[in-house]
Input
Amino acid sequence: MYGYSGKILHIDLTNRKSWVELKNEEWYKIYIGGVAMATRLCWENIKPGCDPLSPDNPICIAGGLFAGTVVPVGGKYGLASKSPLTGFIGDSLSGSWFPVALKRAQWDGIVVHGSSPDWVYVFVDDDRVEFRDASRLLGLGTFETEEAIREELGDDQVRSATIGPAGEKLVLFANVTNDGRQAGRTGHGAVWGSKKLKALSVRGTHGVRVADPKTLIKLSFDITETAQGPFTQKYRILGTSSNVLNLNRLGLLPTRNYQQGVFEHAELVSGEYLYENYRVKTIACAQCPIACEQMRRAKDGPYAGAMTGIEYECLFAVGPNCGISDAQAAIKMIDICDEGGMDAMSTGVTISWTMETFEKGIFKKQDFKCRKYPEGFEPYFGNAEAGVTLAEMIRDREGIGDLLALGTRKASAQVDAERGTETWKWAMQIKGLENPGYDARGLKTFALGASVVARGGCHNRSAAYDIDIQGEADRFTVDETRGWRAKESEEYAAVYDTLPLCKFIRRCFTGKADRAGAWPAIAQLINATTGWNFQYEDIDLIGERACTIKKAFNIREGWTRKDDHLPWRWMHEPMKEGPSAGYVVTEEELEYMKDLYYEARGWTKEGLIPKDKLIALGMPDVAEEIGV
Amino acid sequence: MRIRIEYLGLSRLVTQKKVEELELPSGTTFRGLIGLLSQKYPGLVGYVIQPGAQELQAPNILNVGGKKMVRGDQLDEPIADGDNVILMSMSAGG
Output
């Protein structure tokens, strides 16, 4: 087999043993890699219905088909477990050197089972597996942990995926970090922490065999040349944080816990402002000719020295959405999240929920007592020091941070049960995952896409905002096209997430980002790597299968139609100002669009998957378990 | 006629302006505006405006008033007096 080793490594933390599972080529043609393969491994290895923080929930890692090859932006991997935030599939992607090392160690995937009695890190040294004491690593941040392991093993080529203090303390939105990049969403860090797994380290010394090296090099060089041109220039200079002003002008920038779509101080936390005032350098992942990660450093004031890569989704969450206009405080908050190993999006949205709950008089100053402020503090919107302190308290589960570490859905439920309040109405989450930085009231196709994707509140798994923002459909209204539009945008994203390839390459094949522009080139890359004969329609199938296996996982875990919801605020409170003022997503609109979406997918009105559909997609065993 | 144009992202870095007012002949189209900008700010050509000055370079896009995205097939529509035009990029990722 070309492009794959045909081997999955299984690691049992409970009994400290490992074994190899061989997969045949047909299995790879269905699941490819990334999020689809990771989800499939989860499907095969989880005990359905298990507690996400129990030994029965496996950690499933799936490599990238193009990792370790010359294909640009192919250095990525997928990570899946049952999410402790949502109770459904938790799938994340990360990139750079860790997946390259995995490929060079000749593993297509890794499944970690059970739970260790003591803190360990696992060192995969090509085909040798070693369980190593991690007690001296406890309390270290994510970057520090990577460095400490390299020092301990005496090899700077060892690549590690690690958790920080937040994962150790089971913050439900803790994440996993490698090479300064994060598998950021759905709480993988808590799953790793529940197993007392501090890190997974890999050293790979083999090459990657591909079917047609000459063609692959030619294709890759052409794409690389385009990827260094105008289509990606904004990422190289400003990074994704240039979205702040764009979305603000469209009235879609979540502000003060999504109460507004326009932030009056947006300029002060914009990508442009950060570029002018706080830029340090630009970083690229392994195999990437684009280089989008913009390192920014706070240069003076109480947070001087804080430095990390700034992405839009993290920035909106800790900045405008908390009413915070102090860019240096925003850098500090994201730095705390990255080093502590927490999803900055969920952290920011949880803090904004806290601020609103305080401003509405439900939380009081004394609820915020901590070591730093023994008398408590007042976390009103715009209080930057409160934002920084709350991020630290969540990371350490100190004081009220212990509650906030549960995320907005569980924290609001607990507060409402104890105090008889309705804070759930401003818990901005879908399926338990905190929402991204696009206000769906002014993006109707995205509203549908966000409600139906398997992992919950997410901008990456449904790219439906593209349709609204580019003007392909009227973003303020609904019509009969939204079902197939949301389906197609979700599958489009799933193709990139399954190979996986970074989506920022999408215009660089032919200049057009649509299927016609990208699929033929992607098929050529796959064929040159594997020796297969994939055609345009096979690329479409990659996306459909990825969405299907994730949905199947959720159905087996108890999903019903009502789980495809939107936050109460988006459905009942119109924004008061800006270009999106006056709009909500009504119950009728959402249910109508869900009907259209399920129909476009060939699912039942209740959103279940017919057996024949699953069989046609090459998933007969899935059909047997959840097909109708 | 008089319009207002806001520069976001790369166009702001090139023009070194956040906003300016422009006096245009009545009936000027969005394509005409692109041509005018390419003459006034040659640095926009390449990364923001396509060579030939007929279209914007993806992912850059024009918007009117924060509501209407100007698609490629709408570039020959006239701009209205008093319009607030935004030169921005399509949001993505993060």
User: Anything to note?
Assistant: The longest helix of chain B spans residues 30-40.
